[in-house]
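Below sits the subject:
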Amino acid sequence: MNIILVGIFFITFFFYLINQIKRPSKFPPGPIWFPIVGNQVQLRILSKSLGGLHLALSYLSQKYKTGVLGLKLGKEYIVSVSGYPLIKEVFTREEFEGRPENFFFKMRSFGRLKSGITGTDGIGWSVHRSFVLRHFCSMGFGKTPMDAMVKNEIEEVLQILKNSRSNIRLSKLFAPAILNILWTLVAGKRIARDDLFLDEMLDLLSKRGKMFNVTGGVLNQFPWIRYIAPKWSGFRLIEYINGKLKKMISTTIEEHHDTWEEGRDDDLIYSYISEIKKSKNNPIFCDEELVVVCFDMFIAGSQITSGSLDLLFFMMTQYPEVQKKVQEEIDTKIGRESYIEYADVKRLPYTYAVLMEVLRYSHVAPIAGPRRVMRDTTLEGYFLPKGTTVLLDFHTMHYTQEKWSSPETFKPERFLNEKGEFSTPENFLPFGLGRRRCLGEVLAKHCLFYFFVEVMRKYSVVMAPESEAISHLLLGITLTPENYKATFLER
């Protein structure tokens, strides 16, 4: 009897292992995966040796000669898509508009799946996205009122540089400014730079960004590991960050409830409370959802836009000849004291080309936010089962030799036509495309332009002496320069 039971066990285990490594019929090509872990170990090793997950995916796509690479991480089917035509197709097809329903996205939304804007899909996402855009437009999003907020933050940055121009850590210079622009739109107030809470949050968010990648890492694939190694897996850090942020956001929402009155809509929270009161029986609008919406804004401001500014000025320290050309254009077309508005982009084509080339050459987010296949479908003839996670490889798209001449070279001129006018190549999609196009694209472009021009026309930036040897990017959910310091020389 015991022998029979043991035999049944081993047969069952054998078929379990076979099922674990079996690829679905017509699933995209890629490396073989192993029971339980899938390609997790292989990707970690490749990412570390090549310099990032985006480079590991690019390497595997080239090795298997495919723009649709099939992988498995734990139980999750993963497909990495590269090349402009395929990425554009994913961006514009409805069945690819979902977000993964996994442990990492649940943690990100304070334990709520399908919540907020960034981490959800379907009706909830559509309603919240429309609501936020409508509110921002009413507050002058992309117009003079928003520009005034941006310029107020720039004035503070310029004052900081005036008082101390040596050994400036740029990650500490721009992140509070960008976050405060968004927080003013969301909560109607700024967080003072000398507020220890602000400094702590920026440090914690930076650590969060370095500990994980867009797949969510080991913690996402094996949530049970949080019970065995809560610190190593990043679970303890996520819990701590979420606790701090949720308390701050919830306290702000409570203060708004106490001071709310009908018709008040001078910030996002007041407008949302009005919507809650109008839609008492609509579960889409509630305080729990509002917390996640505010968190979405917080994350976007502290990482993507500020990280792009950090990279922008880092690149100016690496290419002083480009910096000089930018300053000459600004001096000639605008001057050092004239009032600047966003329409001046057209008068500064080379300067704007530099901004876009930085987004291409050193993209903060080389892999777009993951998508979830919402129903069984095909891509390039391959079968993608419902629930498959899709990663969009921006890095490969922006480094394709056939589309970009000498892609490894930093060359702003690639964004200028023969008349010297700014021209956007068709295959350049730093903010995505389609209905899930980046919600903060307008704000990001305005911030990048204003901060860059205002600083460049007053200062030249060089690497601080102790930072001169630094030349690589730190890996994580986003890519950022190593914590370097810069010196600003008054012009």
About this structure: The longest strand covers residues 68-73. The mean pLDDT is 86. The longest helix spans residues 287-318.
